[in-house]
Design brief:
279 residues; Alpha-Beta Plaits; 10 strands
């Protein structure tokens, strides 16, 4: 049995998210169908995170176990030949038997792109929210920092649709970094944008970057919506601690459209560290 790790990028515009859904086109379904042809077996493909409909990825990670004797390079070439062009396998590696794309993930980094110019370029509109109206960048930057740390994010996540499930699920999450940048500032701080194929944002873009261990449903989109409300003056930076305490999602900002959100990268333990602990 071989354990295979995929690093992939995708344009989520025409997909109903990562997870398989009956009668819908999804990233997981597309990859699973191609792998079934290649490996001649039905495989379970697990992702680091289940991106929602219309959300993109530049550094998603998935894993699957197979009896196939195809090499990782053969898998990568075949997958890229057979998958829709909107899904690309950036790397394919064989990993140890204990690796799991979801359970071993230590941190994920997302970006949300806001285009501030009057007219959105045709090559940007699918990947950014257009908001050309007046916003207070300094207030938004101050507010963004207040999301760092371990918090109960009930006020900044979508309901499951069940009050009982909402009460039972854990809403505490750890955020390691929460910052908003002007596009030209982010480019100098995040070299991975080039290596992952994302065009360098220009000065007319603002980008919210958040890195954390895990995220609730719609959490990043709702945090960004809250930051925009701060920029408009509907909320103040010092309202953020109060919103955490209220645990009331109706008091925070709106859940923004999905096209501005992108999973930038996923972090895992260093394999050398695992070997050292075992020895």
């Amino acid at each position: 049995m071989h354990n295979i790790k995929l690093t992939l990028a995708y344009d989520g515009t025409d997909f109903h998210g990562w997870q398989i859904q009956p009668g819908q086109s999804t990233i997981q379904q597309a990859i699973t169908d191609v792998l079934a042809k290649l490996a001649q077996e039905r495989l379970a493909v697990h992702a680091a995170g289940r991106t929602d409909s219309g959300v993109h990825a530049l550094g998603q990670v998935a894993s699957f176990k197979t009896h196939s004797e195809m090499t990782p390079l053969e898998f990568q070439r075949a997958l890229n030949a057979l998958l829709p062009p909107a899904i690309r396998i950036l790397a394919c590696d064989e990993v140890g038997p204990d690796f799991h794309a979801r359970w071993n993930a230590q941190a994920k980094t997302y970006i949300y792109r806001i285009y501030r110019g009057r007219v959105v370029p045709p090559f940007v509109w699918r990947y950014a929210l257009h908001d050309p109206f007046q916003l207070d960048f300094d207030a938004m930057r101050e507010a963004a920092l207040l999301f760092e740390g371990e918090r109960d994010f009930t006020s900044f996540a979508a309901s499951t649709g069940s009050e009982e499930d909402d009460r039972d699920r854990g809403a505490t999450r750890s955020i390691f970094q929460s910052e908003i940048f002007r596009g030209d500032d982010l480019s100098s701080k995040c070299a991975s944008l080039d290596s992952l194929g994302l065009a360098r944002p220009g000065p007319e873009e603002w980008i919210y970057l958040v890195r954390g261990r895990s995220f609730l449903r719609y959490m990043v989109r709702k945090i960004t919506g809250t930051l925009i409300d701060v920029g408009r003056g509907r909320l103040r930076p010092d309202d953020i601690p109060r919103l955490f305490e209220m645990r009331d999602r109706s008091r925070s900002g709106p859940t923004l459209a999905p096209q501005g959100l992108c999973l930038l990268s996923v972090e895992y333990p260093d394999p050398a560290d695992s070997l050292a602990r075992r020895s």
